[in-house]
Amino acid sequence: MSFHLTDDRIRIMREEEVISQIKEIIKIKNNNVVVGPGDDAAVVSYNRKEYLILTTDCVVEEVHFNRKKTPLFLIARKAISVNLSDIAAMGGVPLYALVSIGLHKAPTQKDISQIIKGLQYMADRFSFDIVGGNLTKSDKLFIDVSMAGKVEKKYLKLRSGAKPGDLIYVTGTLGGSCLKKHLTFIPRIRESREIIKRVPVSAMMDISDGLSTDLIRLAQASGTGFKIHLDKIPVSNDALKISKEKEGAIQHALNDGEDYELVFTVPVKHKNKVPVKINSVPLTCIGEIVKEKRYTGLSSDGREVLIHPSGYSHF
Amino acid sequence: MSFHLTDDRIRIMREEEVISQIKEIIKIKNNNVVVGPGDDAAVVSYNRKEYLILTTDCVVEEVHFNRKKTPLFLIARKAISVNLSDIAAMGGVPLYALVSIGLHKAPTQKDISQIIKGLQYMADRFSFDIVGGNLTKSDKLFIDVSMAGKVEKKYLKLRSGAKPGDLIYVTGTLGGSCLKKHLTFIPRIRESREIIKRVPVSAMMDISDGLSTDLIRLAQASGTGFKIHLDKIPVSNDALKISKEKEGAIQHALNDGEDYELVFTVPVKHKNKVPVKINSVPLTCIGEIVKEKRYTGLSSDGREVLIHPSGYSHF
User: Fold this and answer.
1) Which of A13, A31, A205, B176 sits CB 3.0–4.6 Å from B239 for a disulfide?
2) Domain containing B23: what range?
3) How far is A186 from chain B (nearest CA, A)?
4) What total number of domains does chain A contain?
5) The whole model's pTM is what?
């Protein structure tokens, strides 16, 4: 995730201004940088056919997990997975990871072992190597992972490619990830690769901060708006569990963070190429990109509501 | 720095066991990994003539700096510099940086600006690009940087290449870095490049945890011992300022951390190729590599003392 605030309270208030401030100061000098700060990951030259993808993301105690309730194995797994999700968002595959760990006291053998096993579990599952890292003292536990991946030039996907008329799809189901999925989600590397090989996707990103927030980012990067059908948003069982009625569950699916699914857009003429499922993961069309820079949701009874980042006006 | 404990208290007790535990669990699968965990940085395939260098290092409030006494500009500069020092240690040049920042409260515009300016200052000075990053909430400020660099295959330097008889050199002066240098040091990228182009260096690393600790690491990686002349260790003015007498200053030069100079070894037949200075940085021969795995220091009156990591037996 490239220069991205991951805490809700500061994100909503300040993220856009922080990012614009960063972009003002940071000047990219090297023309090997294909994509700098602002997308899910950075993209730089690699070889004739492929780009190198570079990304970093961090999980911090009390912000992203509760240390007492969460096994270190799962915390380490999550720290890797959030980075894999960024690489999936670009259409890439992971190659190498570096892991920087802040531990609040001298680590026990079991602590270290649980963390390393969580990292290695993901490395085995997604065929990349953990090539180095760093351990430091820190009052609160954090695991900061940076990752290098690669993507064929022809398959690179950005947030900025959506065009009016393109259909909007999401993978999986959304909402209620705080119950469990935020720790155990499967980053959509395989699904992403399958989708981009079969479908000429015009824009893609991962849903880490909630569909409403992230779809607005995709639309802004593409210079467009969108119109989505609220009752078509695939609602997770956990979102239903939390709210117990459909309307509330939709709100969770729209606004909860940490789904780590993909949202992508497809030119309407290619819609038949989009499969219903990849592996067992459903792909659902939820609406379309529009020219006017408005972000709207249609409820099942035809009313139109404005979508805001992490919240939308009441039904 | 590859899987390296950066807090003194836990490092001394546990670092070697932690690293050996990590190495037991982590299995490198990809034969594109030339150097995995254990050296200053990881090295992976890049192109026909060059390797890619990957490294990460972190600075944490109250461990590496005092937030109230230290301007954010200098903290950010240090976070970059410790990574550049690792790239210098491999003989490489920096290409790209990712920056993960943990901030304890909603950042002010000035906070962000000071941090970004510190990062950008180093990026301009060493001609690399900051391509992305991450901001998250954290009680204690931390800045975790990961960096990609490159090195010509013929110039790659590891810790493990020293042979008995090789002479041991250090750049700059050592000790007393806590007064100021730990924040304002110049990573030895240019000096490293100049040295390896002029001299067939057999092993190299940076001195981040004190000469005694790091030279023992180099000797262990090379399967050798060493003998150094304590009165030849180049003592910094700050080490003299702290201890006020020569013997004490030598102890600081030997054992203080955060010098971020280079220690390297040269086959004795090439010693005439080693310049006295590079730019204005002195290169000083302090001893030699020996076959027997003992780490000894000779005092000016000819007595022999055993060198221990971060401490040695009394004169």
Assistant:
1) B176
2) 8-154
3) 21
4) 2
5) 0.92
